[in-house]
Design a protein that fits this description.
alpha+beta, Histidyl-tRNA synthetase, DUF6495
Length: 156
């Protein structure tokens, strides 16, 4: 398995897609039930293959990721050739960027001495989707990139 198996909730939400996946392998609903009962290992393998296919499709489309913690923001722009990063560190221990109040403080004070910035870029490894997946596994979430683009504008 290249990534990780989708959660039960994700699999339930992708039920129609999973049915199509089984159909492409000429597996009917009755055959699937038999496989689950008589060959659970084969059923597990099918779920893993399906999960990898879904992850591959999602990751190939991801352009922006955000990982926001109490005092840090890591904003990623995932281009064709490299990963670009805006990193923000808040030096006010009373602030939590994950809250509306904390983020409001940041917007008012983003140019103060209490905020540090770092920009970086890094080439992908052998498989850029694996690199993207690792960021997601570390807590990043897929976004439309509004926050990254805002930083891009103010940093110019």
């Amino acid at each position: 398995m290249k990534y990780r198996r989708l959660t039960q909730q994700q699999l339930e939400e992708l039920h129609p897609e999973f049915i199509n996946f089984l159909a492409t392998q000429s597996i009917t609903a009755d055959e699937w039930e038999t496989i689950k009962e008589e060959k659970p290992q084969v059923a597990e393998e099918e779920l893993d293959v399906f999960s990898d296919l879904i992850w591959e499709g999602v990751l190939s489309k991801v352009e922006y990721l955000e990982n926001i913690s109490e005092l840090h923001m890591h904003l990623f722009h995932l281009t064709d050739k490299e990963m670009k990063l805006f990193s923000v560190k808040v030096m006010n221990p009373e602030i939590d960027l994950r809250t509306q109040e904390g983020f409001g403080w940041f917007k008012r004070n983003f140019q103060s001495d209490f905020v540090e910035y770092l920009t970086a870029s890094k080439a992908y490894g052998e498989d850029k989707n694996v690199d993207k997946f690792k960021l997601i596994e570390q807590g990043a979430v897929i976004t439309k990139g509004e926050l990254y683009q805002w930083f891009e504008q103010i940093m110019e």
